[in-house]
């Protein structure tokens, strides 16, 4: 067979870390509109202002997507994308990219196979660290997705960096880990 042969040396932890983050970003680019629709459906009816006859009501995922495109434009489907990509780089890189390294850490010296306990511990460790690191980006992403229906003058944040700063200043640093 003609072509490239797989490398004899397995990829380093750094290569796994970066490639996992990039793969997560590519997946997020494809699924972000669905996530935005999910957030809009979840927060519908949560606003303390009474609904008016003209207020938008979302019905189902595809109904939400079409209503958003019709009333706010196609760009609204990607509101908060920068924070979403930051989340994927952090979350995917840590949870997937460092999994093998953690699995080796938990595997007893001299063991031929990695046991179920070592795999579970590695998954729990990388997952917990990934969530703890990615939570601020998730908070910012959801706030952008939720505020998409507001007019430009009513929006609280001018950029992703402004959102991090404003949340930390107004709610304290713990506000970035809300939820």
From TrEMBL:
Which GO biological process entries does UniProt record here? Answer: transmembrane transport
Q: Which Pfam families match?
A: Mito_carr (PF00153)
- Solcar repeat feature ranges: 11-105, 114-179
Q: What is the topology of this protein in the membrane according to its UniProt annotation?
A: Multi-pass membrane protein
| GO cellular component assignments | membrane
Q: Which UniProt keywords apply?
A: Membrane, Repeat, Transmembrane, Transmembrane helix, Transport
InterPro entries, alphabetized: MCP (IPR002067), MCP_dom_sf (IPR023395), MCP_transmembrane (IPR018108), Mito_Metabolite_Transporter (IPR050391)
Localization: Membrane
Provide the primary localization. membrane
Q: Which family does it belong to?
A: Belongs to the mitochondrial carrier (TC 2.A.29) family.
Q: Which PANTHER family match?
A: MITOCHONDRIAL DICARBOXYLATE CARRIER-RELATED (PTHR45618)
Put simply, this protein is called: UCP3 protein
The gene coding this protein: Ucp3
């Amino acid at each position: 067979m003609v072509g490239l042969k797989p490398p004899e040396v397995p990829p380093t932890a750094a290569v796994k870390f970066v490639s996992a983050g990039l793969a997560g970003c590519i997946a997020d680019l494809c699924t972000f509109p669905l996530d935005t629709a999910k957030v809009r459906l979840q927060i519908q009816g949560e606003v303390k202002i009474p609904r008016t006859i003209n207020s938008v009501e979302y019905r189902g995922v595809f109904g939400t997507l079409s209503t958003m495109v019709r009333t706010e434009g196609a760009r609204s489907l990607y509101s908060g994308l920068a924070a979403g990509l930051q989340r994927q780089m952090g979350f995917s890189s840590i949870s997937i990219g460092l999994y093998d390294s953690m699995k080796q850490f938990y595997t007893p010296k001299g063991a031929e196979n990695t046991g179920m306990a070592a795999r579970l511990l590695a998954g729990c460790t990388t997952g917990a660290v990934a969530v703890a690191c990615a939570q601020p980006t998730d908070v910012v992403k959801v706030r952008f997705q939720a505020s998409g229906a507001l007019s430009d003058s009513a929006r609280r944040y001018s950029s992703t960096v402004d959102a991090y700063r404003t949340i930390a200043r107004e709610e304290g640093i713990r506000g970035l880990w809300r939820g």
